[in-house]
Structure formats: C-alpha cells, structure tokens
Design brief:
single chain; alpha+beta; four-stranded antiparallel sheet; 4 strands; globular
C-alpha cells in the first residue's frame, strides 16, 4: 500500500471554506477512485487553519491517477489561493493494526 500524508495550513479567513472543499474532495476520492483505500481528514482542535490528511492507495500508480482526476484538479484550482502552506510526504505501509 502507498500512503500519502499532507499537512495544510490555510489562510485564517478561508479556513471554513477550505475545510468544506477538503471534505468534498475526500468524499469524491473515496467514491470515484477504485485505488483510493482511505482518505482521512483531520483538523487541529486548537487551530482551525491546520489540516492533516492521511491517504492510502493501492499503489503509487493509483495515487498518480488521483492527481490527474477532474475532481482533484478542480479542488486544487478552487483552493490554491486559500492555502498558506502545504507539505506532502509519501510512505510505504509496513503494518496496520
């Protein structure tokens, strides 16, 4: 399994709109992409501008397809100006409990 983690910081005035768009993006990914196994959206309880994603794909190719999907491209375009910082990391899943 291929894991992607993303740390977002949104601009404060866009934090609620960004969260709504993110939740829609997560739902679309799970419902429309056979290779997307998990798409968790977490929000810092003390700072609404901080969002953490934990995504699992069947393999790296499935993640690359995700990046080309119409819903991802639309989300990226819609939210680009709302994002102050974004850090992406990829992992190979070694164990799940």
């Amino acid at each position: 399994m291929y894991v992607v983690t993303v740390h977002f910081t949104s601009h404060p005035e866009h934090s609620d709109a960004f969260m709504q768009a993110m939740l829609k993006q997560a739902k679309n990914s799970r419902e429309r992409e056979a290779g997307c196994i998990r798409f968790d959206v977490c929000r810092d309880p003390n700072d609404a501008t901080r969002i953490f994603l934990y995504e699992i794909y069947t393999d790296e190719a499935a993640f690359q397809e995700h990046l080309k999907s119409a819903h991802f491209l639309s989300f990226s375009e819609e939210t680009a100006a709302w994002v102050a910082d974004k850090v992406v990391a990829t992992w190979n899943l070694a164990f799940t409990g």
